[in-house]
Structure formats: structure tokens, C-alpha cells
Amino acid sequence: MIKFDNITKSFEGKTVLHGISGIFEPGRANLIIGTSGTGKSVLLKCMVGLMKPDDGVVLYDGRDFTHATHFVQREIRRDIGMLFQGAALFDSMSVERNVMFPLDILTEMPKDEKLDRVNFILKRVGLENANNLMPSELSGGMKKRVGIARALVNNSKYLYCDEPNSGLDPQTSILIDSLIKEITEEFNITTVVVTHDMNSVMEIGDYIIYMYQGRKLWEGNKAEILDAEVPELHDFIYANKLVQALREEQDLKKNG
Amino acid sequence: MKGIGKYFIFLSRLFVKREPLKTYMKQIIDECVKIGIDSLVIVAIVSTFIGAVTCIQTAYNMVSPLIPDYVISVVVRDMTLLELAPTITAIVFAGKVGSNIAGELGTMKITEQIDALEVMGINSVSFLGLPKIVGAVFMFPMLVILAGFLAIMGGYFAGTLTGVITPQDYIYGLRADFIEFNVTFAMIKSVVFAFLVASISSYKGYSTSGGALEVGHASTSAVTNSCIAILTADYLLAELLL
Q1: Which of A61, A148, A254, B241 has the fewest CB atoms lying closer than 10 Å?
Q2: β-strand A207-212 against A29-33: which pairing, if any?
Q3: Pure H helices in B81-180
């Protein structure tokens, strides 16, 4: 479980996060949604330690991450996996070496065991024959799968995904969303997805936080979001024609 | 001044909170190959021609018949050891290796590969920068030794083939009044220059933000700043040690 309380962050006097709080439970896909420039990625960076919040605290299963010493932070970070927007694979390494990298650096595992683990996780993300491919030879969707495999190979307890669908076609986006959802449930990990893709929200949104101008305006799940009575969230949701059509269909059914 | 301060903070991060040394061994070997072996051809070409040109131009300037011919090779030897081999090779090194380091780290930065390392709990400054600096400090003195040898050989062939000096005079000049400390001085300079080029270029690459344009700027800036640092250090070392 990830608990974050009163996360505040400013840049050169401009506050971009105004005391955001919430709890992300394991075994479900937790989404942070909002328009571009609303502070989603800054919140994510504060949570994984790429930025230090000006105020507030992030707790991983009760362990204080924000104020911990370097060595404690390093221990907690070893339980964190992250899928970056562009996958952030190491260009000079093959798929196998990319996925094996956390095991090489962070563990003392024998080579055979590492290889077995890599093959298992690559198979799980549907890339069983891609070991020797280089990142430049992969499609966008494959890169994201390798990114997920690398994030999970060290038995991570917490998975962060920053815009997992950016740059992907709708069909591949659905596959990646489904994979994230399946893996979250299968390994009972705490998954946090930052997105502005309403299709993802409706597909995997077990718990959703809506952010607007650095503030948390709404929280709930995908079943509740269409009925949310927050004007900013309403505008955000119904900017998507598909969701608009879905809502109209629901209204028609309700009214007989 | 702010940039210099950030550079020193970057240097301090190289050595604190780093991974165990065994983590770096493979990378250090890779960097040695990349930095050393890949620079051999350019260093060989530049140093051979510099030696040849120094020999010809020294002969051209020695108009007095009172100065013996072997002085030409004395000048080639001392210029090579004291200045040309370490300094010109360092400038070439900054252009080739420095821009490469800055470009590589800059690209890693803007494509979030460095963030990926940090999220894993790895000190990315140390993990990426230290092997490059160690590789450069280890390999560059060898390149300077090679450059010195080839420059003197270049001078020999240029001088003897064009007839400005006999082979006997050239060899005699190389041995005349030889000061061993000049070799030590060249080695000290090479270690200092290698550290400056690798650390400045790593810093410039690491502090890149933005996109492809900024990576290009970082590479250019790495080369220009390295050259300025080399020339400043060159002067200071000459003042201190000679």
C-alpha cells in the first residue's frame, strides 16, 4: 500500500502541487488523471523520489520514504518498478540485458537463475522470443512491454506507469492496459498509472484521482466517474467523443 | 560561477553513495576500449603530422649556420614532450571523446534512462560518470605516450626524407641534454587533462534538459569548456612544475 499525505511542491514560487493526499491499495490499478500540466507527473516524481516534495510524506507499507536516509530510500526503491513514457530502455543493451539489468545491479543471483527469471517475465509480457533484439528494433508497444518486464523482474511490490499509452495505437493501448491490469491482480502489486487517456480510465480504473491545477478535485472508480458532479472533471471526461456517446446511451437506457 | 559550483557538486556525487566497486568493473573495461582503442587512429594521424610539421618548420626557421642541425630534433623532442603530445592530443580527445560522452549522457537524460537508474536506487552520476572518468584517466596517458612516439617518428621521417637533417643528427638530437622529468611532466598533464575532459563532458551531458537541440548544445559546450579547462590547466601546471 502506498499512502501519500499533503504532498506540496513549488517551482520558483509557483505551487504546482497543493497538498495532495491519498491511499493506493495493492491488487488494483490506481489512476492519476487530469489534463496536461496539471501536476500528475510531478506528483509521480515526488512519489518515486525523483523530486523531493516541499512538504508532505510518502509511505510505502508504512515505511517513510520522503524523510528516510539514503540507504533506507535505496532499499524501498528496490521494491519500486517504473514504466516510463518512452519506456526508457537502455539503447546499447539487448532486450534480455535490459530486463536483466536490475538483477545484475541489485541482486547476487546466479546467472542461470537470473536468466530463468528474465525468460519467465518476458514470457509473461508476451515477448518470449525477443531476448536478442535491440530497443531500436522494437515497436512502441513492444518497448512498453519490455519496460514493464524490467520494472517487475526484481519482484517489485509497487509499479508506476507514466502515460503507458502515449504514442500507441488504440488496439495496442488496450493490450498494454489489459497487461497492466492482469499483472497487478496476478502479482498483487500496487500499481499507479498516470494518464489522460479516458479509454484507459474506463478500462482499468479501479481507483481514480482526478487532478486539476495541482489539486485533487475528485476520487472514485470507473463506475462512479461518469456521474461525478465536478465541472472540471465533467469537461475532461466528455472531451472524449466516445465517452460522450457512452453517456448518451446510458441516459437513453435510463429514460426508457 | 553557478555552473562551476554545480560541477563540483556533480564531482562530489561521483564518489559518495555509490554502488560497490565490482559493479563498475565491466563498465570501466568497456569505457577503456571505447575511449582508448577508438581514439587510436585519430591520435596517430594528428601526432604524426604534428611531429613532421614541427620538424620542417623548425628547420625552416633555423637560418643561422652557427646552429647545429641536431637542434631541430631537440626542439621536436622537447615540444612534443612538453606541449604537443599531451596538449594537442587532449584537444583532439576533447573533440572526439568529450562530445561523445556529453551526447551519450545527454540523450540518456532526455529519454529518461537516467531517471530509470535513479528509480532503481542506483546513483546514476557515479554509475555513468565514474567508469568514463576512470577509463579516460587510465587510457589517455597511453594515448599521449603513443602520440609522443609517433610525433618524434613523424619528425624523423619528414626531416630525413626531405633532407633537412640526417638520421644521425636527428638521433643525436633526441639524446642530447635529455631531461627525464619532461616525460613525468607529460604524464602528469595527461592525467589532469583526461580527468578534466571526462568530468566536464559527463557533467555537461548529465545536466542536459530539453530535447535533441539541447543534446547538441551540450556536446558543443562540453568540447569548448574542456578546451578552456585544458589550456588553463596547461598554463597552471607549467607555472607550478617547471
Answers
A1: A254
A2: parallel
A3: 89-93, 99-110, 113-119, 124, 130-162, 167-175
Minimum Cα–Cα distance from B123: chain A residue: A74
Q: Is residue A250 part of a domain?
A: no
Q: Which of B47, B53, B55 is nearest to B71 (CA)?
A: B55
- State how many domains chain A has: 1
Domain containing residue A193: CATH number:
3.40.50.300
Contact B122 A105 (CB under 8 A): yes
Residue with cell 638520421: B167
Q: What kind and span of H or E run contains B84?
A: none
The residue extents of the domains of chain B are: 34-241
Cell numbers at B162, concatenated: 626531405
Question: Are A96 and B10 a contacting pair, CB within 8 Å?
Answer: no
Q: Which domain holds residue A122?
A: 2-229
**Which of A70, A73, A82 lies closest to B116 in CB terms?**
A82
Say how far apart CA A194 and CA A200 lie, in whole Å: 10
Confidence of residue A197 (pLDDT cuts 50, 70, 90): confident
Find out whether B73 and B94 touch, Cβ atoms under 8 Å.
Answer: no
B contacts of A78 (beta carbons < 8 Å): 120-121
The 10s digit of each residue's pLDDT in B28-87 is 999 999 888 889 999 999 999 999 999 999 999 887 888 898 999 999 999 999 999 999
